[in-house]
Amino acid sequence: MKRIITLALAIVATFAFGNKANAQQYALHYRAVDGPVVSEGDTVDYFTTDDDKLMGLAYISFFIENLTAGNLLTDNEVVQLEGPEGLHTELCAGGNCPQQGPYTLVPGDNGQMPLTIEPAVLPQYAGQTVLYRVKVGNIGLVSNTVTVYLRVHMADNLGIESAAAPVAPAAYPNPTTGRVTVGDREYDLSGRPAGVYYLPTEKGKAKVIKL
Known about the structure:
It contains 3 helices and 15 strands. By secondary structure, it is mainly beta. The strands form 4 sheets. Strands 2-1-4-8-6 form a 5-stranded antiparallel β-sheet, with no helix packed on it.
């Protein structure tokens, strides 16, 4: 009887340790810090807008919440599984556009460092659908990963006028919490509320997200 009790306690201890080790470390919120959580294996659908058509680019964000009590060295991988060949997709993460490599997330929301997926919205893609696999996890993506899917529906009215529109100047960093450089100009949005701003330069307007 003593052996049986000892073995049972060992099994319980192993099970408890395994649960702790495999506890989820990340939560992905769709399009807002307090937006809905996208669970492992879920697919979210995004439909391009007139603003996306105007800019020739869509901005689709996942805000990454660190569920642990310590800092997490984090990385992500976004792979296009379906859709037109040659579609250019920019990635912003860790507060940098484009992403500059792994980044550190402190415990909590990390609202200033979303993972933003930016597919080109151009006339040749009108009416098509793009499917991405989005993976977020510890550096190297070998453990504690969350994998979700993003399906982008390109509007079927991406007309010829979009092709003739000037290419929007680059904005850096974007999203921003304050200062942002757009083309050959610098703007300070520190005192302005969060939202989307269209900032002009000599080469056109850029869509900037203020957090």
